[in-house]
């Protein structure tokens, strides 16, 4: 039985376009993509998200296989099943170090916002000095320990559990090497019958014990110690409202005539498709055979016009007519000789019926030129048969058949076009309701051929989607909001929420008008890397003093593990700082 899965081995230079083609072409519903270590595709999480959207749109299940753990982690985080072919495992090593919360921190409150006319670069030098702690190393004066705030009291330092040392009794079994052994590895001497090598063996075991003790001390001092600092800062909330204009004709964000202008992008895709559908009706029909023939001008270097329905006749009297008027180009004269010019045209039988379904014909004459020199100079040749002639009862597509077929084909094209644009979408793109358009450009219905019971529907469509970079919008809002907020120290965005109202899209101008409303929350801007360095080697009391100086701090928790270490480790990986 043929396998329902398909494994595809990829090279290091594979890109999203190549993988998307594999998805479309492979008939199996389950596909395994094997990525080599260091594949360029696995350098971006956006690539896996785009691949996931494409696979979902095609209804295919994709498994990512690789020995590259980083690639497997990224694939797993975007919803793919993953597999390491060596260890046969699905790594789940990514985890959050900040616990989620569904409610605001205890004591949370919205601080009043003081408006200022200063620009974003007008933070005072005094404020910068206050915030210099996380921008450059500060040397604060020591504070009395009895003046620390309550949330940094001794109770805030949590110690890990400890266990009392285990004391074991001497074993009651006899020693392996007697005290009077003098040489060797405990083998009895042939001469005396006494054990030899006792001193050497005792030295060996003593050395092993010292090594074990040293490893234990190293584990206690270098491996086990760990410090965790949890910091919760005050939030400074600011509401905003903008009239937003997104325009593909601009490259940078700006404020023009009271509106926030952002660069936008109009994504486009087009596709055509022909499918067959059942024809449920019947009718007595008379169908004329059709085909193609080539007209030759071997008469003159002048062009010759032929009107619609011009007759072309076979040697046995069957007549075919031009479907539309044409002009045959003039022949070429080379060395005094005529080189005929040609023109390929469509013709239709003069009468309906199967008798006009004829094979290729070497020469058609034009009866209209009979009796003139042009009769021999102009003629036609068919290289393929004339087909389709029929008289009788035939299956036909009803109006209901055509309506249902158009609906089905539209849905198929729309799904396919959305999948194509999904590959172009980026995670930071926003697509608003009403900012997409699907148009059918062309459609043709072809009734069933004689003795067939299906008809064909051809449709050509395009899909347009207006998008903009949400990051650009948030950056513009942040710059505008921070000008009005004077907290006395440097701020960072904690979260931002935006809602859109009344979108109005003009595809001809490639512009989108919409109202954007929401709020932005700031907190103190802390450089975690510099703060970690300040903690290295500090004891709990010194660390509390450092934390006490952080601006905008609401509460904190400090934990040193194991408790007997008493100081922060000097290894950056052993110090964790969680900020809410």
Automatic annotation (TrEMBL):
Transmembrane segments: 200-224
Location of the region described as Disordered in the Swiss-Prot/TrEMBL record: 98-124
Keyword terms of this UniProt record: Membrane, Transmembrane, Transmembrane helix
Protein name according to UniProt: Baseplate protein J-like domain-containing protein
Species, as recorded: Candidatus Jorgensenbacteria bacterium RIFCSPLOWO2_01_FULL_45_25b
């Amino acid at each position: 039985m043929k396998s329902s899965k398909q494994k595809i081995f990829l090279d290091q230079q594979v890109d999203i376009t190549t993988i998307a083609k594999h998805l479309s072409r492979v008939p199996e519903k389950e596909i395994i993509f094997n990525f080599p270590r260091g594949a360029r595709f696995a350098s971006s999480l956006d690539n896996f998200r785009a691949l996931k959207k494409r696979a979902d749109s095609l209804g295919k299940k994709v498994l990512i296989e690789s020995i590259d753990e980083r690639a497997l982690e990224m694939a797993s985080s975007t919803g793919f099943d993953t597999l390491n072919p060596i260890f046969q495992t699905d790594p789940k090593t990514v985890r959050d170090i900040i616990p989620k919360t569904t409610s605001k921190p205890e004591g949370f409150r919205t601080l009043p916002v003081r408006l200022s006319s200063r620009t974003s670069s007008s933070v005072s030098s005094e404020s910068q000095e206050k915030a210099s702690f996380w921008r450059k190393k500060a040397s604060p004066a020591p504070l009395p320990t009895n003046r620390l705030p309550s949330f940094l009291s001794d109770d805030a330092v949590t110690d890990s559990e400890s266990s009392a040392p285990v004391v074991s009794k001497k074993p009651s079994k006899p020693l392996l090497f007697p005290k009077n052994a003098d040489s060797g590895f405990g083998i009895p001497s042939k001469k005396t019958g006494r054990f030899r090598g006792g001193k050497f063996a005792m030295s060996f075991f003593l050395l092993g014990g010292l090594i074990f003790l040293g490893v234990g001390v190293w584990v206690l001092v270098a491996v086990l110690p760990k410090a965790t600092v949890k910091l919760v800062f005050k939030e400074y909330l600011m509401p905003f409202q903008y009239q937003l204009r997104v325009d593909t004709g601009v490259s940078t964000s700006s404020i023009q005539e009271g509106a926030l202008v952002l660069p936008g992008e109009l994504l486009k895709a087009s596709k055509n498709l022909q499918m067959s559908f059942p024809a449920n009706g019947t009718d007595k029909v008379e169908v004329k055979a059709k085909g193609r023939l080539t007209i030759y001008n071997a008469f003159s270097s002048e062009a010759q016009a032929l009107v619609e329905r011009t007759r072309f006749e076979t040697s046995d009297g069957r007549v075919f007519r031009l479907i539309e008027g044409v002009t045959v180009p003039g022949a070429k004269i080379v060395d005094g000789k005529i080189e005929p010019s040609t023109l390929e045209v469509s013709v239709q039988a003069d009468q309906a019926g199967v008798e006009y379904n004829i094979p290729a014909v070497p020469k058609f004459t034009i009866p209209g030129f009979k009796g003139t020199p042009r009769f021999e100079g102009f003629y036609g040749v068919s290289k393929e048969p004339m087909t389709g002639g029929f008289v009788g009862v035939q299956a036909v597509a009803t109006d209901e058949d055509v309506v249902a077929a158009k609906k089905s084909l539209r849905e198929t094209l729309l799904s396919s076009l959305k999948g194509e644009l999904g590959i172009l979408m980026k995670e930071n793109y926003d697509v608003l309701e009403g900012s997409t358009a699907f148009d059918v450009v062309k459609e043709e219905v072809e009734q069933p051929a004689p003795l067939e019971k299906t008809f064909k529907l051809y449709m050509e469509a395009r899909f347009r989607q207006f998008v903009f970079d949400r990051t650009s919008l948030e950056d513009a809002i942040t710059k505008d909001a921070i000008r009005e907020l004077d907290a006395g120290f440097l701020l960072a965005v904690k979260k931002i929420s935006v809602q859109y109202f009344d979108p109005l899209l003009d595809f001809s101008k490639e512009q989108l008008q919409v109202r954007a409303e929401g709020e932005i929350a700031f907190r103190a801007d802390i450089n975690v890397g510099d703060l970690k360095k300040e903690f290295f080697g500090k004891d709990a009391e010194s660390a509390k003093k450092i934390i006490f100086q952080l601006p905008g701090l609401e509460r904190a928790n400090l934990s040193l593990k194991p408790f007997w270490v008493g100081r922060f480790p000097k290894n950056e990986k052993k110090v964790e700082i969680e900020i809410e």
